[in-house]
Design brief:
By secondary structure, this protein is α/β, with parallel strands linked by helices. It contains eleven helices and eight strands. α4 packs parallel to α5. The chain is elongated.
Length: 281
């Protein structure tokens, strides 16, 4: 779908990028709301939105499509608060959170089958705020779209928005399977980066300059804590499986070092290198 009027609730790195891309694609009316007023002003000055809403519901009223670009906890609250408006008129709605099952369960409970489909654009960044928004951020990005039961029509319309307006590549998938996959591909790397940053902060040498290895492997630790607080808690069952596997790998490393087993250590390192090279191939 190509909406005549788009509501974007949340104008940070991702929400701001979606609004900005829609503006460049010719969507004539884009109403933006941000809990940080300066972000809304910056988005208006940049031409990413055409008007500012002072409350979330005022971004919904005139919209054909509403994008909830907020952390998972806030998105759950927004769905509850906006339910009446979403049901009262033919408006479609999607979100952009990286954990889908809790969002979809609530949307189904609120009887939003004909109005809502979940989305997860793989276009995030560890930076936050409208300063990190880019109209090109969605170019070619994979976007998972998760339909509600019997909600395929809404999902197709929303997938068409991602492809036709944002230049992204949408793929329909099941919410539970999505959450299991991203627990490994996104949430576990975030947790590990934060754990490494925590270890360096607590026990690492003070006053030293960290090289690119430490900076690269802890880059994700600079991500928005409030966002990841919600994601890790809401997808904790799937994430705990990944953490178990991570602890197993560290156990193998510790065992090889404790015993001085060079062959085991080399095999451990070579297996990791082989896997990493395959990722890029």
């Amino acid at each position: 779908m190509r909406p005549e009027s788009l509501g974007v609730i949340g104008l940070g790195a991702l929400g701001g990028s979606i609004a900005w891309r829609a503006a460049q694609a010719g969507v004539p009316r884009i109403i933006g709301y941000s809990p940080v007023p300066a972000e809304a002003v910056a988005a208006l000055k940049a031409g990413a939105i055409t008007e500012i809403a002072d409350r979330p519901d005022r971004a919904v009223g005139p919209a054909d499509l509403v994008v909830l670009a907020a952390p998972p906890g806030a998105t759950l609250n927004l769905l509850r608060d906006l339910r009446g408006q979403l049901q009262a008129r033919p408006v479609l709605c999607t979100d952009v959170t990286s954990v889908k099952r809790p969002i979809m369960d609530l949307a189904e409970h609120l009887a939003l089958t004909e109005r809502f489909a979940g989305s997860h654009p793989l276009a995030g960044t560890h930076e936050s705020g409208f300063d990190a928004a880019r109209p090109s951020r969605l170019d070619g990005a994979l976007v998972y779209v998760t339909p509600l039961p019997n909600g395929e029509r809404a999902a197709r319309e929303i997938a068409d928005f991602w492809a036709g307006v944002c230049g992204a590549s949408p793929v329909l998938c099941n919410a539970a399977e999505h959450d299991r996959v991203v627990a490994w591909t996104s949430h576990l790397p975030q947790a590990v980066a934060s754990a490494l940053a925590g270890a360096l902060r607590r026990a690492g040498p003070k006053g030293v300059t960290y090289g690119p290895g430490a900076r690269d492997t802890t880059r994700l630790a600079a991500s928005n804590p409030a966002l990841w607080h919600d994601v890790l808690l809401l997808n904790r069952e799937a994430l705990l499986e990944g953490l178990d596997a991570m602890e197993g790998e560290l156990g193998r490393l510790r065992r090889a070092l404790n015993t001085g087993n060079g062959d085991e250590l080399l095999a451990w390192l070579e297996a990791a290198r082989t896997w990493r090279r395959q990722v890029d191939s």
